[in-house]
Amino acid sequence: MMRSIDKLKDFEFVDQGRKFYCSVEVPSLAGMRPWWWFRLETGGSTRYAPFEASANDTEQSVRERIIAYYAELLATEARPAYQRPVWQKPKPAVPPAIVNPAA
Predict the structure, then answer these.
(1) Is the separation of the CB atoms in 18 and 2 below 8 Å?
(2) Distance CA 10, CA 24 (A)
(3) Is the pTM for the entire model greater than 0.85?
(4) Statement: residue 1 has pLDDT above 80
(5) Alpha carbon 89 to chain centroid, angstroms
(6) Strand order, beta sheet including 11-15
(7) With contact defined as beta carbons under 8 Å apart, do 52 and 26 qualify?
(8) Is residue 46's pLDDT more than 70?
(9) Which class for 24: exposed (0-12), middle (13-18), buried (19 or more C-beta within 10 A)?
(10) What are the phi and psi torsion angles at 21 (to 5°)?
(11) Residue of 19, 23, 4 whose CA lies nearest to 67
């Protein structure tokens, strides 16, 4: 079923006990395309804009994409942080040993 972007309405759904609120918003800058935004019920004021809206979007297709996006976000956050080694000033080069062939 094809709908125009103008007809896409806000919706909400629950996945794995998390409630998602989804909406299409047009950026305030002229010429920019609309984007899907979502937030979680427990997420406070944090919102995510994972992809542009399309006339081919359905509630089901958007729901699937948001679930996949959020799962990837959680997986990224669960990875341990890369710890860089402590920077140290390079040690001076050791001069090569002198070999005395006459000895």
Answers:
(1) no
(2) 7
(3) no
(4) no
(5) 36
(6) 11-15, 18-25, 35-40, 48-52
(7) no
(8) yes
(9) buried
(10) -110, 125
(11) 19
